[in-house]
Each structure stands twice: as C-alpha cells, then as structure tokens.
Design brief:
Layout lengths: L1 E6 L1 H4 L8 H16 L3 E6 L2 H9 L8 H25 L3 E7 L2 H4 L1 H16 L2 E7 L13 H11 L4 E6 L20 E2 L4 H4 L14 H13 L3 E6 L4 H7 L6 E3 L6
Parallel strand pairs: 1-2, 1-5, 2-4, 3-4, 5-7, 6-8
Antiparallel strand pairs: 7-8
The structure holds glutamic acid.
Length: 257
C-alpha cells in the first residue's frame, strides 16, 4: 500500500511556532511502525514558515513575501532536523523534496520528480515533501499543502492520502458555530453540496482550510485515490485509517464505488 500523509503546521507546532514535541515524536514512531509493516510512506509536511517563526522568535507569521520566505528558509532546516532525529530513532532515513507548481507543469521535471520519489521508495527512504517556499512566487506556487499533497498522491498513484489537521474531519454543519454538528464518516462522492460545507478559514500559522481540502478531495477521488481527513492531535488515527477501522472522514475514490 502506497500512502501519502500530509501533516499540517497546527499538528507539528504550537501557536507560538515552537515544536509540539510529544505529538511529533509520537507521529514519527507510528509512521515508522506502519512503514515497518510493509507500507510505502511519503510525507507532505507543512511547518517551514511556522517553525521559522518560532526559531526566529517572531511574534507572528510575517505578512510580506520576503519575510515569509526567510522564515520558511529557517524553518525548513528545523523541520528536516526534527524529522531526521525522530525517524532515525526507528532506523528510517528521510529525504527532503521541495517542489513548486512548475514541477507539475513541465513534463520533464514532472517525470524526474516521479522517478526520484520511486527511487527513494526503492531505497526504503521516507520522502518528505514541501513547497519550495523560499523561491515560490504567486505565479509558480501551488499555494497550500492540501493541494500539494493531492497532486503528489495523484502523480505517484498512491492508494490513499491521509490529511492530518486540527479538525476531526468534515461536519454536516460548521462545528465551531453549531453544537449539534455531526461528523460525516464516509463521503462516496465529492459533490457541489459537499464542497459547500467547507469554510475558508485555516489556522494562524498554516495556510489551507476545509475548502482547500474538499477541492483536493474532489480532484483526487476522481482520479482514483481515496483520501481521509483526520485529527492529527491523536496520531493513533493513522493506525485506525490504515487498518480500515475508520477515523475522521473517508472520501472514497471513484474506483471503490
Ligand atoms: N509550505 C508551507 C510551510 O511549510 C505550508 C503551506 C500550508 O500550510 O499549506 O510553512
């Protein structure tokens, strides 16, 4: 089974931009265990800007582009240092892959990216992908890692994309406003009505919101890959999803119907 796991900034870091050590360590342990069981794992990790904010001691995420790009340059090192340290404890090797939208739009670069990921998986390494925030401008930006992770999962024919976020999944109403909102465990088809359930807000340090996740789910499920949105604050959700017990919201691929 080939699984892409997207880890959001809100899972890795506190609002201060400092690392959530307990959660990150637990995540790396569980992901290592699932890899040991035979699955191929590719991570798409946010957190470069967020951890850069923490490391530089900034009060908030910079609003200007050079500020964000500088924070990302600092935070990306921190991010990989953290993953390297924790995955090494379980004898796994990590590999940094930084992409921009151009890499999906130019055939030769696209093929090279796919070949590299496949080779890294043959080498039993864990590719850890992020947008190349330091050079990406609006013209060549994917823009958010929900979309990036769906593009990656589609390109490499993954069986499943798991998006770990700070919400439990998709609700039938806005859970922040309606106490009776219910979690939707399975979505068979991402219709316009489903997309309409997404709001626009993300966390203060991250970028994507429910809307970007639902748009990603539509693109991905239509191309034949299932996707799950689950709360990253309980890393055991990954076991439940992979074992078929269910956690969060599963968006079934068009192949499964
Ligand atoms: N690439 C950004 C970062 O690492 C995150 C984008 C997102 O949160 O979707 O900070």
């Amino acid at each position: 089974m080939r699984i892409v796991i997207k880890i959001g900034t809100s899972t890795l870091a506190y609002g201060t931009g400092m690392l959530n050590i307990r959660l990150t360590e637990e995540l790396c342990k569980i992901i290592s265990d699932i890899k040991n069981s035979g699955a191929e794992i590719i991570l798409v990790s946010s957190g470069a800007i967020g951890l850069g904010v923490g490391k530089l001691g900034l009060k908030e995420k910079p609003k200007d582009i050079p500020g964000k790009q500088a924070a990302a340059a600092v935070g990306q090192c921190e991010l990989m240092a953290v993953y390297d340290k924790y995955f090494q404890e379980y004898s796994h090797t990590v590999a940094q892959v930084l992409l921009t939208a151009d890499d999906f739009n130019h055939e030769d670069r696209y093929q090279n990216f796919i070949n590299t990921i496949n080779t890294l998986l043959d080498f039993r390494a864990i590719p850890i992908i992020n947008e190349n925030d330091t050079v990406a401008t609006s013209e060549i930006k994917v823009g958010d890692n929900d979309t990036l992770s769906a593009l990656v999962a589609k390109s490499i024919n993954a069986d499943l994309l798991i998006i770990l976020s700070d919400i439990d999944g998709l609700y039938d109403k806005d859970p922040h406003k309606c106490a009776d909102a219910k979690l939707i465990p399975v979505v068979d088809k991402v219709t316009d009505d489903i997309i309409a359930l997404g709001g626009d807000e993300g966390s203060s340090l991250g970028t994507g919101g429910m809307k970007t996740k639902l748009t990603a789910a539509k693109m991905l499920t239509e191309s034949g890959t299932s996707m799950c949105i689950a709360n990253g604050s309980d890393p055991n959700n990954i076991y439940k999803i992979v074992n078929g017990e269910g956690a969060g919201t599963l968006f079934k691929s068009s192949k499964n119907i």
